[in-house]
């Protein structure tokens, strides 16, 4: 397993891997004929070999080579417009802009190279082959010298006579190689000489054709720039001759924003002004001196904080130490150090930025405080409270220390002080809530016991070893789990703090924060899941401890994507099994099962039991049939074949964990491991019919599925459960919305409108449910949450004084060796190559480089599987073809070029895909395949390509390398997608930009600046649930759903006409909606129209109810689906596929993703010129 490889070793492997890739696509070092790559020898023209880093002659750059695009500027003239760099397909110039202290001159260095043709070059002789090669050469030279070895015995070439008779020597060497084939002990020496033979190979048919051999000639020159002139032009000379490169500069003098001096704004452009020379790997380097000091753009430009929104002001303050010191033109730029006073600025064709990983360490805090087994019910209450109080005191001390820094911040910028104080006020509120949570545990025995049992459930669900788990439970000690790196678990500080912060509002319906949505805002991979799994356990346990008869849905957990839902469902199922296990072994957790249900729609799981039976029969007969049941192994014992039998028993019904589907036992699944406590029955439901019947404690679903609520009376079981003995009604107590940032745009608007209905239904009891949400990427969360859920939001953890430290989560500091051990981002933009060619070469470079580094299979697994991320299905489709054909060809070419004994052969089954076109059962299978590590006897997946479905839900620790083809439209999408790699080990992300797309080019030129503050670049979400389009699509369904599910007499499909008896309730529902709209309509854009529409819907309903009462055989029903509608029936709602029938009915969605109408285009005639 790769987790056994130390971070320092991983860093060394990643560095070598990246260097190998860079050598292949930029150079130098792509062929290893000489050890000094600065004078490398290659066997083809460098303009063909390399895909980036090429400066073409000015004349060549004006030729588009058939590539078109809005970004091309073939009339570029650097001398007249030095601030502009040509964006042609074959660029002739690069540049950069920066600020520096006003001075008279500026010295900088230009490093570049050209490649000269050469004949019979010396190549390095490997020391381990020296003796063998010497023997071969000596034996072969008996009649006529074929080869020569340098005096220092470090290099080899053809003999001097090669200049007169190359074909003759070539034949002699070939004969010699044929003889050496018969000597196995000479295998390596023979392979080396074959490389020399192939490098110098000449066709015997065309004796005039010379081999294409090129040797790199590095060039370095220093240039002095006169900053006293607004424009500056100079031709670079080398040894008294023009080099073919010219420098153009534009200089402006500007005052600093604080008026304490002046700076120069400098734009430098380097242009290839030669007629035919092509330059490679050109780089500009500027170093700070006593008279040259660099300034960040943020220090020069006036920020005008007062003109920014509150959110933007806060971001500017928190990212004030993330500064931009240069911007590239046609190339990227970097600077060192990346924090503090910059000493060097430089251009780079392949920029890199290492994202600092999160650190959860708190100095001086005992590890026992964060161990879940420190909070078992056997541990004395006083000991637990003391530990938690020490934890809270640490946070208090941190806040107090930050409060002392505010005066210093005020001196830096008075506007910042107000933001700092606001942030620290939020921290104080959080601290007070933590102390309040501890006080609840101190005073409420049931709350403390629920907290203790939740901690135990967290421990139990982590172990996959049934015997060890049971041993820990019986012995009441969990040290065996803690000592095992596979199961050890300690709370991250933010997780424990979140539980303490929210516990009062989770279990106390009268809490001041009950109606506040608590939002976990942690970077992807930070551990949000464990935090809300514990919150679920707390709510369920506290309810069961206080009410032995409690039943029904207690928690609803909603996701936006079926992939995310499927993966998280497996983790939640383990938690629910742990809670049910505890219930079965205690007498104080009630009499009703604690269970989980997956409610995601017919495309992923069966809606009806009859369908499930057929799916099961198909699965038994054809093992390759899609598996819609999602659960592939028992989430408690995790034993192989606990759900799906081996091939020899797949025809036996009772060997399957799905056997209850056929046996009509009233439940869906059972474990086939006789030692498992859930052998008889698993508390998991995956069929809609079973969910409505059993009302699982935790309901897992996608948001779009909730569109069924107004049109399906069975969904009432999800919102209310009555105890026939006591008459008590149980409603969900907790709603969790994961990946909140995805609830935006058209989908978010519809979700927000439907949420009004759910809120009304769930609040019809004694109190509203508690809401939690989580995200890693969001902007304007206050506005989004208000529009979606009509609630205030409190972010957790609250921000501190700097984006890098909020106490609970900090960015890691470099190691003693200066390593960050974070995810490394790499930028690539092709020059003179099409995007397709660049894509092929880059994929092949990643795939091939890992096999040539002399690594063990375990080390190779770090970067064995390459993930490709695409912005559209069309682009992905192209890549799928490329991977099957062109990339394989390129891999063969690389193997031949490098003479490598190790070659990369891609799997015959091709690459895996993860898109919306893939079925849910295939998704589960794909994820399972991706977990297989590369070993000496088992080959892992080579490539996996995906669209934005990858952005959330994939959590596979062995994935570490990715290519993002084109900059995604949203920064949040870019963050989420690239966070899928390097979650536990060191990740490597290549951002492949298109040179013909202005947006891609902009991100490439500002690569470092963008990546150092990615989270600040996240775009605000747009949610308009009460806009006219949203009201037109869903308001009727929303209003009807509100009435159906709060008045039992209106629930049945046949009782739509009973609304005549519920006019006051109808008026109350309308008022509820209008009040909600008004609270979220500060500009009065929607309220009037919404009021009119509500009146029209209500009047429509009442009129048809009267008509139904007065007309024989004219029934009024709620909803008409295409299959069950009848002509003589009146409906209030109909599905979107019934446009030509029942015009009296309003449209209603079957899924909230039915948000856009489709249109057909028919071409009636063609237009031709007269």
TrEMBL record:
Molecular function GO terms recorded: helicase activity
Q: Does the keyword Zinc apply?
A: no
**Where does the source fall among the domains of life?**
Bacteria
Keyword annotations: ATP-binding, Helicase, Hydrolase, Nucleotide-binding
For this protein, the record's PROSITE patterns field holds:
HELICASE_CTER
Note the SUPFAM superfamilies from the entry: P-loop containing nucleoside triphosphate hydrolases (SSF52540)
Under the heading InterPro entries, the entry gives:
Helicase_C-like, P-loop_NTPase
Stretches assigned to the Helicase C-terminal domain? 857-1022
The protein here is known as Helicase C-terminal domain protein
């Amino acid at each position: 397993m790769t987790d056994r490889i130390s971070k320092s070793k991983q860093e060394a492997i990643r560095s070598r891997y990246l260097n190998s890739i860079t050598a292949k696509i930029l150079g130098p070092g792509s062929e290893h004929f000489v050890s000094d790559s600065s004078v490398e020898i290659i066997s083809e023209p460098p303009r063909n070999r390399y895909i980036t880093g090429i400066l073409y002659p000015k004349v060549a750059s004006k030729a588009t080579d058939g590539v078109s695009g809005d970004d091309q500027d073939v009339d570029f003239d650097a001398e007249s417009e030095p601030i502009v760099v040509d964006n042609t397909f074959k660029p002739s110039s690069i540049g950069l802009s920066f600020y520096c202290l006003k001075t008279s001159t500026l010295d900088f260095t230009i490093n570049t190279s050209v490649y000269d043709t050469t004949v019979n070059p010396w190549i390095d002789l490997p020391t381990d082959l020296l003796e063998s090669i010497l023997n071969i050469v000596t034996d072969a030279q008996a009649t006529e010298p074929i080869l020569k070895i340098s005096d220092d015995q470090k290099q080899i070439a053809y003999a001097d006579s090669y200049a007169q008779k190359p074909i003759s020597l070539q034949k002699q060497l070939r004969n010699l190689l044929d003889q050496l084939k018969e000597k196995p002990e000479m295998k390596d020496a023979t392979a080396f000489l074959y490389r020399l033979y192939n490098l110098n190979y000449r066709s015997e048919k065309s004796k005039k054709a010379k081999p294409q051999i090129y040797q790199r000639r590095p060039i370095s020159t220093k240039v002095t720039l006169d900053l006293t002139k607004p424009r500056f032009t100079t031709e670079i000379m080398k040894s008294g001759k023009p080099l073919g490169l010219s420098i153009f500069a534009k200089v402006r003098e500007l005052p600093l924003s604080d008026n304490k001096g002046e700076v120069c704004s400098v734009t430098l452009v380097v242009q290839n002004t030669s007629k035919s020379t092509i330059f490679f790997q050109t780089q500009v380097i500027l170093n700070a001196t006593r008279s040259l000091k660099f300034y960040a753009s943020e220090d020069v430009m006036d920020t005008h904080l007062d003109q920014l929104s509150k959110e933007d002001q806060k971001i500017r303050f928190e990212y004030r130490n993330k500064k931009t010191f240069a911007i590239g033109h046609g190339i990227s730029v970097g600077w060192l150090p990346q924090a503090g006073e910059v000493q060097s600025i430089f251009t780079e064709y392949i920029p890199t930025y290492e994202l600092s990983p999160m650190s959860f360490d708190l100095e001086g805090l005992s590890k026992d405080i964060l161990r879940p087994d420190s909070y078992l019910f056997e541990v004395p209450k006083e000991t637990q409270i003391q530990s938690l109080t020490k934890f809270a005191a640490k946070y208090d001390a941190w806040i107090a220390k930050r409060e002392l820094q505010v005066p210093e911040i005020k001196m830096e910028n008075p506007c910042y002080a107000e933001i700092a104080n606001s942030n620290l006020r939020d921290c104080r509120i959080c601290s007070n809530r933590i102390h309040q949570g501890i006080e609840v545990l101190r005073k409420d025995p049931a709350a403390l016991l629920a907290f203790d049992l939740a901690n135990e459930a967290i421990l139990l669900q982590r172990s996959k070893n049934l015997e060890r788990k049971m041993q820990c439970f019986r012995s009441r000690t969990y040290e065996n789990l803690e000592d095992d790196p596979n199961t050890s678990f300690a709370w991250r500080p933010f997780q424990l703090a979140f539980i303490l912060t929210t516990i009062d509002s989770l279990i106390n319906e009268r809490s001041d924060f009950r109606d506040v949505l608590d939002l976990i805002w942690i970077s992807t991979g930070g551990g949000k899941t464990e935090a809300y799994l514990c919150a679920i356990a707390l709510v369920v346990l506290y309810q069961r401890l206080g009410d032995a008869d409690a039943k029904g849905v207690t928690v609803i957990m909603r996701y936006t994507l079926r992939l995310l839902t499927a993966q998280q469902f497996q983790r939640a199922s383990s938690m629910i099994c742990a809670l049910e296990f505890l219930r079965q072994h205690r007498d104080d957790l009630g009499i009703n099962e604690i269970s989980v249900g997956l409610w995601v729609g017919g495309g992923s799981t069966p809606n009806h039991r009859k369908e499930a039976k057929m799916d099961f029969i198909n699965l038994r007969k054809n093992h390759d049939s899609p598996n819609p049941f999602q659960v592939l192994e028992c989430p408690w014992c995790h034993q192989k074949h606990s759900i799906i039998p081996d091939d020899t028993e797949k025809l036996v019904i009772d060997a399957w964990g799905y056997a209850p589907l056929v046996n009509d036992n009233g439940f869906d699944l059972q474990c086939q491991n006789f030692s498992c406590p859930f052998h008889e029955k698993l508390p998991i439901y995956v069929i809609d019919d079973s969910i409505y019947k059993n009302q699982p404690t935790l309901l897992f679903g996608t948001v779009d599925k909730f569109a069924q609520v107004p049109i399906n009376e069975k969904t009432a079981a999800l919102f209310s459960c009555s105890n026939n003995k006591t008459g008590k009604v149980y409603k969900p107590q907790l709603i969790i919305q994961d990946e909140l940032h995805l609830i935006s745009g058209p989908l978010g608007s519809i979700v927000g409108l439907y949420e009004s209905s759910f809120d009304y239904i769930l609040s019809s009891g004694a109190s509203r449910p508690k809401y939690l949400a989580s995200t890693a990427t969001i902007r304007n969360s206050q506005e989004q949450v208000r529009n979606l859920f009509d609630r205030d939001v409190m972010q957790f953890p609250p921000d501190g004084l700097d984006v890098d430290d909020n106490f609970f989560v900090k960015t890691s500091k470099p190691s003693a060796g200066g390593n960050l051990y974070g995810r490394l981002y790499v930028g690539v933009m092709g020059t003179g190559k099409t995007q397709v060619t660049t894509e092929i070469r880059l994929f092949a470079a990643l795939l091939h480089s890992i096999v040539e580094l002399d690594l063990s299979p375990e080390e190779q697994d770090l970067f064995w599987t390459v993930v490709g991320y695409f912005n559209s299905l069309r682009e992905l489709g192209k890549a799928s073809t490329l991977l099957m054909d062109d990339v394989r060809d390129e891999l063969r070419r690389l193997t031949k070029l490098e003479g490598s004994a190790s070659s990369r052969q891609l799997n015959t089954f091709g690459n895996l895909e993860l898109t919306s076109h893939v079925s849910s059962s295939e998704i589960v299978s794909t994820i399972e395949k991706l977990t297989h590590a590369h070993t000496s006897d088992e080959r892992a997946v080579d490539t996996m390509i995906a669209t934005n479905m990858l952005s959330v839900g994939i959590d596979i620790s062995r994935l570490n390398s990715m290519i993002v083809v084109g900059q995604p439209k949203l920064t949040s999408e870019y963050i989420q997608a690239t966070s899928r790699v390097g979650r536990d080990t060191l990740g490597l992300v290549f951002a492949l930009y298109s040179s013909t797309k202005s947006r891609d080019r902009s991100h490439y030129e500002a690569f470092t600046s963008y990546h150092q503050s990615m989270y600040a670049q996240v775009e605000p979400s747009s949610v308009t649930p009460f806009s006219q389009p949203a009201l037109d699509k869903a308001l009727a369904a929303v209003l009807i759903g509100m009435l159906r599910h709060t008045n039992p007499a209106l629930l049945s499909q046949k009782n739509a006409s009973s609304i005549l008896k519920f006019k006051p309730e109808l008026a109350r529902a309308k008022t509820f909606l209008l009040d909600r709209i008004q609270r979220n309509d500060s500009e009065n854009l929607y309220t009037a129209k919404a009021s009119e529409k509500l009146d029209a819907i209500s009047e429509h309903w009442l009129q048809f109810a009267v008509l139904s009462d007065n007309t024989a055989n004219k029934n009024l029903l709620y909803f008409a689906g295409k299959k069950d509608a009848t002509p003589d029936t009146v409906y209030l709602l109909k599905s979107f596929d019934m446009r030509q029938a029942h015009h009296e009915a309003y449209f209603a969605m079957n899924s909230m993703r039915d948000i856009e109408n489709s249109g057909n285009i028919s071409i009636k005639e063609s237009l031709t010129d007269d």
